[in-house]
Structure formats: C-alpha cells, structure tokens
Amino acid sequence: MQHQIEDLQDIYGDMRGLRHDLRGHIANLAAYIRNRSMGENKDLDDYLDGMEKTVARLDFADHTGNPMLDVILHQIRQQAKRKEIDFSVNFHYPKNASFDVYDVSIILNNALQNAIEACEKVKGARNIDLHSYEKGSLFFLEIENDYDGQLVWKKGAELPETTKAEKRVHGIGLDNIQRCARKYNGDVEIRALSKGDRQVFNLTVMLYHREEKSDN
C-alpha cells in the first residue's frame, strides 16, 4: 500500500504538470485561431471551449498539502455532486506530520463515505462539512453531515451501531476510524445535534501530532 501511495503521488505530480502544459497550449492555440478568424468559425470556437472545459475537469478543487488526500477528497466531491449533496472542505494536512497519511486516508474515506450514506436518507437539502484544525500538539478532523436522526446505541458501547441489516459485515467504518485515532494517542467523539429543522451528525477525530523536524 505504501508503494501504491508513492506511485499515486508521482502520477498526481505528472498530472499537475500535464494539466499546466495543456492549459498553456490551448490558450495559445485559441488566441492564434481567434485572432485570425475574428469569430467567423463558431464550430472551432465551440471545440476550443470544449477542450478548455475538459482540461478544467483535471483540476482538483482541494489542495490539502498531501496528494493522496487530494485524490480522496476529489473522489468524494464527485460522489457528492452526483447525489446532489453539498460538500464543503477546509482541510489542511499538517506539514511534517508524524502520523502516516495512510491512516489519515482511512479516517477520511470511512467518515466521508458514512456521511454520504447518511445524507442519502435525508430529503431536501443535504450537507457535508469537513474541516481540520490544530491545537498545540493535537490535530483535529471534524466531519458534520445531515442524517435522519436515527442512531442506535447499545448500553455501554463507545460507538453507535449500524442500522443496516447485516451487522457482521457493516458498521466497521467507525471502528476503523477509532483504531487509527488511538494509534496516535487520540480518540473520536460523536455528537447528535439539532440545528433548526436539521438533524446533524458530528464526528470529531483527534490525533496527537508530534511535529517532525525538517532536514533544513
């Protein structure tokens, strides 16, 4: 998995370079053709506009500071868009973080997939909000999303139980998130909130962040 992450980072870097070059080439070509045709060739103008839009699709809306997490958020953003869920992000990966980005990717992927599934059960406007912040040596990830207000807690349980039928194969996402948090002397907190007529599920994940010294 570590090798796959490294490969993905290389691919992501190549994509950024290719996107930059393509955008420059298309802009130069468009300027040249439009100056010569003076708007006489509408089909060509439409074709160039289409090329520009295609290249724009390669742009990632989120720049977290880590390419692996950029890819995850890009995928979640595409899912949310297809399901008409509003997805807002203010997330930044700590510079020189001591924890493994693979563990953070597990946290983000599980939490955001759960948030999308919860939003699908809600009628009307649905929202997912992700943000991160630091307090001293602690790094916090907070995900808040609309849900149908149904949470099942077993007596003495630390985490809510899945509402899906096959509990043996579902509901492990929160367990994985908590396991990753505790690996870094952290934990999770879950709150059910009422905001006007909205029922909101709030998940906060805390990780102990021991900043690694840079080589400089």
Structure description:
The protein is of the alpha+beta class and 216 residues long. Helix content is 46%, strand content 20%. Strands 1-2-3-5-4 form a 5-stranded mixed sheet. The protein is flat. The relative contact order is 0.11. The model is unreliable at 165-171 (pLDDT under 50).
Main attributes?
216 residues, alpha+beta, five-stranded mixed beta sheet, flat
Please outline the helices and strands.
Elements: H1 2-37, H2 42-56, H3 67-82, E1 86-90, H4 101-120, E2 127-135, E3 138-146, H5 172-183, E4 187-195, E5 198-208
Helix pairs in contact: 1-2, 3-4, 4-5
Give the class from helix and strand content and strand pairing.
Answer: alpha+beta
Q: Beta-strand percentage?
A: 15-25%
Radius of gyration: 22 Å
Mean pLDDT, nearest integer?
A: 79
Write the element-wise H/E pattern from the N-terminal end onward. HHHEHEEHEE
Quote the distance from N terminus to C terminus: 29 Å
Summarize this structure briefly.
The chain is α+β, with helices and mostly antiparallel strands.
